[in-house]
Structures are given as C-alpha cells and as structure tokens.
Amino acid sequence: MSDVDQPPGSGGGNRQLLAVLASSMAAVLSLAYLGVFTWVGGGIPRGTGVAGVEIGGMADAEAVQTLNTELTDRAETVRIGIEGLEGKEREYPAERLGLSFDAEATVAAVPRREAAPQALVSQLGGQDVRPVVDVDQQRLDRRVRVMARRVEDPVRQPRIEFDGLSVVVIDPRSGNELDRPAAASAIAEQYLLSDNPIELAVEPVVPYASEDEVNVVAETEAQDAISGPVTLTVGAADITVSPEQIASVLSFLARKDGIWPKVDAPLLRELIAGPLAEVGNPAKDANFDVSSGTPKVVPAETGRGVDDTSLADGLVQALAADDRAATLELERVEPALTTAEAKDLGIKEVTSTFTQEFPYAAYRVTNIGVASDKIDGTLLEPGETFSLNDVVGERTPENGFVEGYVIVGNRLVEDYGGAVSTITTAMWHTAFFAGMTRVEQRAHGFWISRYLPGLEATVSWGNLDLKFRNDTPYGVYITSSLTDTSVTTTIWSTQYWDVEADFGPRADPTPAGTVYDDADGCVAQYGVDGFDITVTRVWSRNGEVERREPLFTSYEAAPTVICAPKPEPKPEPTDKPTDKPTDEPSDKPANSNPNN
Question: Which domains does the chain have, with CATH numbers?
C-alpha cells in the first residue's frame, strides 16, 4: 500500500508544533532563570538593603564596613518623641538606652541566593533586612521608667481614711501614663529603621470610682464602721475593738470592681495583742544555737491562732453584721522560718567577729547593752538589708536608753543614747570583713582614738543609719555580747569572701585649736587634729582579687574645749604652756562620743 499524504488538520503536525514550542519555552525559561540567578549574585543578593542602606552585590566584609559607616550617626543617637514631654523630642545616646547595632550579625543574617526558582524570583525585586540589635533590656527598661516619670501624671484613686473619728475623703483625679513595656518594645524595634523620631504616646487613665461614688461610701459604710465597737470571738475569748481602734486600722480603697474596706492587720494585732495573746499559742520560728561554737538549728514549732488575713476578714465581717460581731476560728499557724529553710541557709561557722573596747561609764554599759540585746539573734537571709536604726529603735527612755554624751557638730553634748556608736562601729567592722555590701555608713565627725581611723561608724536617729546588705548566697546570723568595757559582734554564715583592709596614709592634717566656753551645759574635751584617710576593702575569692572598694573619710578637727571664760591677754608672752582642760567627769573619758 502506497503512502498517502495526511489531510490538513490531522494530529501529527500539531504534535510537532507543540514539541517545538515547548522546547523553545524551556530554553527561554532556562535563559531567564540563568539570568536571574546571575543577576541576584552569589554573595549578598542585589537589591538588599538594611535600614535604607544598600549593600546588594557586596562581599560580607565590605557590607559590614558600609553599614558601620552609613549608620554610625543613627546608631549612636536615638531620637524619641513623647507626648507631653517639654520640647516633645529628646535625643538619647543609644548606649544609655542599652541599644547597640551589630553589623556583622546583620550581614550574616542576610538571606542568600537560593536555587529554588520560586525563592530566586522573590529575591529579584530586592529585600529589606532588619538590622540586628543587641538590647540590654534591664537598662532600656530603667531608662523608659525615667522617661515615664517626666511625663506621667499619676492617677489618684479615691480612698477614705479617718482622722480620729472623722471621715476623710481623698477625691479621685484623672491622670495619664506611658505604657512602659510597649514603649520599650517600640524603641527596640524601631531603633535604626529611619531618621525620624520614635513616637511614644501617653494614654489617659481614669480613676476606678467617681467623686459621687466615694462620697456615698463615706456617708454610709465609713460612718457606720465607727458608730460603735465590734466584738471578735476567738476561741473562748471575746475581744472588743473600739471605734477609735477601728478608725486607726480601717480605710476604703477604690478597685476595678468597687470601693472596698482594707484593714491594717498587723496594726490591729498590735492593738489587741493582750487579749489575743491569751488565745491559742504562737508559732515559733526556727532559730540558731551557737553556744557550742558551731551553729545548730533550733527546730521551728507550729502554733494555733489567727493569721493576718483571717483577722482582717473577721473585722470586715463584724462591721457588716447586724450585731457587729464575728467569730474567728483558731487555725494552724506556720512559722515564718521553718526548720528546713533554716538548714538551707548554710549558717555553719564564724565568718567575722570584732571586739570594740571602751572606757567604763554607767551610761555606756546601759545604752550599749540595750542595743546589743536588740541586735543579738538578728537573721539576714540572702538579699536582705540590716538597718541598725530599725533593729535598735529610737534612743528614748521608753526604749530603755539613758542620757550620755553625743557629738553635735564637733562638740560633746548630753542626750539619750550616748555610746550607741560604739556597737555601731563594732557592727560595721564585723560586716566589713564578712563581705557585706555597704549601703549606708558614715564615720564620726572627728576621730576618736579608740577606733580604727576610717573603719568605724556612727548613727543618729532619723537622719543617719548603718545599713549593709547580705549579697552572699548564704544566711547571716548576728550575735552580740557585752562586758563592762567591751562589746563583741559576730557574724555566722559560710565563708564566701576573703576580705582585707588596706589603710592609706593620713593626709591634709588640720590643727585642733582651743575653745573657751563658760555657758551652762559646757562639756570639756581634749582636742583632736583633723585629717583625711582612705581605707580600701579588698575582696578576694579562691585567692584571686575580684574587686577593690575605696572608702574615703575626712575627719574634722575637734577643738580643745575649756569650760571657763577666755582669759584676758597677758601683757607679756611667757614660756609657760597653755593649761590643759579640766578632767572630764569620772563617767566620761576624754574623746567620748555621744554615740561612742
């Protein structure tokens, strides 16, 4: 059979055409892919930008240098606009905000050329890469708090208090505040992205309750609360709380869900301590016995009584009841420090002890003894701060103190609590060598010869304290003991720091001079020259010095005080030496200090 030509429109020709077209399309796509692959480049893809800086096509090292050069000004200074801030816009060094630009990390994070066609095409139009920013969150948050305080007007929530038996209303007031977490996030996220300031908004804050709402509570619930006594039944005891006592512990505070009474439970417990003590038995915290020379934990004991929450709730319940009475159940009371917690504190040995001697005087023995008894047995857990004023209390007759000699300016006068600085000095010396962190400490105004210069301390109620913080991972147990001529303070813990004191030379001496004083109440004293000294605390661990802490003290000169009229000038100079001041009373030696 002879071949016959296929008629037009048959399938063979179309297939050939399609094959040719497909081959051509594949070639075009291959060329296009090859072109895009080549254009994007093998290093940093073309069209790549960081915060408006073009780095496409560059080698990594060149890109890092370009970013550091182009973004230097923007990286060093951050412009921030805060609504309500005077001048509205402020500039802050990025370092103070805890922000820094990492150009190398930014370049390393740039997406590179990919072989997959879809990914490759996505890079054809270029790409914007966020700069890598290192954020010191603690520093940034701290700086945002400072910014916020400059612009915020804190809302005043309404509350109701009592002045005696009078109801006092504190009216509400709207305010505004900066959303601090959102502000910190905005600063970190927008840093370096543009030259425009980062805008932070201050939002209004509305009080939880209106003036009318708080006045209604004041005229009803608050007035009713002090209309008469209430009775709290605890076990077999009926405890009466007077209107005056109610007023002293009660207030009303606005919350999101209304205006509610709040009771100062610790103060209420103090006010009814007598009757309450007759009910149940108190819990006993774990303690430490160091009499053997090795600390041993004295186990804690649970008790039965009423905790602060139940006491406060009971008073609120009684105020709302028709008979103004409430019954409180005796409950198991857990100790604040359990036996296991005490053992975990790691109090195992003496880490520092110091004995400060003093000349005998009756007032010294009394006042130092009162302070010693209060300090003895003090426990500081890790992170807690010791305050001598808080522990010892105000130096008053009610607290057991008597009059003695204290320093005012550079002169001795009589006042309550004289010689307390003697135990203050012992306590600071002990804390110094135990590696406690100095929070507040000041030396005497003039040097007292029985103290180590630059390594002593004084206190004054209301304006000068001795404070140190336990920054070790172990608990600190403080003991104190007294003789008629010395006081010894000891810190028991686990040795964490090795501490030495490096005493510098005395510098810039100032002569004492002489003062004559015939006024009533004059106290004679021997003069003391003034001088400056620096004592450096050297902190070591495992034989390696970790830090040095210089403590500078400048002692004023204290004059020789002669309690007599100033003598008339003699007509002729003589070689006879100036008379020394009269001896001090037998209970006050020379150089005595009010708190020494």
Answer: 48-151 (no CATH), 211-343 (3.10.20), 346-562 (no CATH)
